[in-house]
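DATA SHEET
Item: assembly model
Revision: 1
Owner: S.N.
Input lines:
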Amino acid sequence: MLLPLSAAAIMATALLWELALPRLRMSLPQLAHELAARRRAHHNASGQHGYDPGRELRAEQRARELLRSCVNEEEWAMYRDLGFLRVWAPVRMSASAADGSVPVRMSASAADGSVPVRMSASAADGSAPVRMSASADGCPPYAYLVYPHKPIVAYVPQTGALLNEYCVAFPDETRPYGSARLPDADDVLAKWMALTADERRLIADANMHLPGRQVDPQQVREDLARLVRWERERAGRSLGSVRAA
Amino acid sequence: MRILRLKPGHGEIVLAEGDVEVPEQERELIEAFRRELDAGMWAAVPTQRTDGRREAEMVRSFADVPRDAERVIFFPRAAGGADGGTDR
């Protein structure tokens, strides 16, 4: 009894399969097409255009032209050659201790060429933006290294001592191509504009950390050494051109 | 004067352009300026000091923009970042 029933079931399945196969062959490509269209529609609706190296390269070229037209010639050459900018701190002549600033020596002794600078007491515990007075040679007491899409690094130019990292981003939540990141040169320009225009506001909005949190201190020291070499070569070239003239 | 905005995947885009001395064009500039400000953007005007050094000036209203400014650049407001630049 079981055997004939099984045979009948197999026969029925085979017949149904034969009948359904042509229809399946016709509808499968249509189904695949519909699924692809649905995926594309979802893709566009969510703004996920994917990473396009050509588009990003063109955007970066435009951004570099804008950066070049805004910053000082030396700063542009620095970014072009080294990949980062140095922004000098705006000098505030707060020579008296009445403003709460205290003199601190950034390295062990003056024999190594370090110079005493004044740092506000609250900055030492990392709770407020660093505020220093100008050093005796008139050089700004601190400066910033501005990298694209990395924290801003504050350091003492006279000693190379690293002070803080200021983690700051300029996310564009409209995400026109799925990413909130500005082109590299635009990110540097945004930091430069914010630092030169309103340093306190930018520093207040940033997350402050001790050096080494995100940017490798060894890399920063190497960058500072590259910067010194670059400035020396540049000064040598300008001196040479003056002599030639 | 041109109102520019920094944008991912674009570089800068021109939002409005006109002569501030022409009332109709000034109105368009002001409207573009307000739109960006309402969207939470920061605005800066690249300037040059008398000693030749270049810097920027943040502006919070169109009245703050120097009449002879060539460009006003809008960019997203700063936020404390901590991702180390991994979002690509």
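QC remark: The longest helix of chain A spans residues 2-45.
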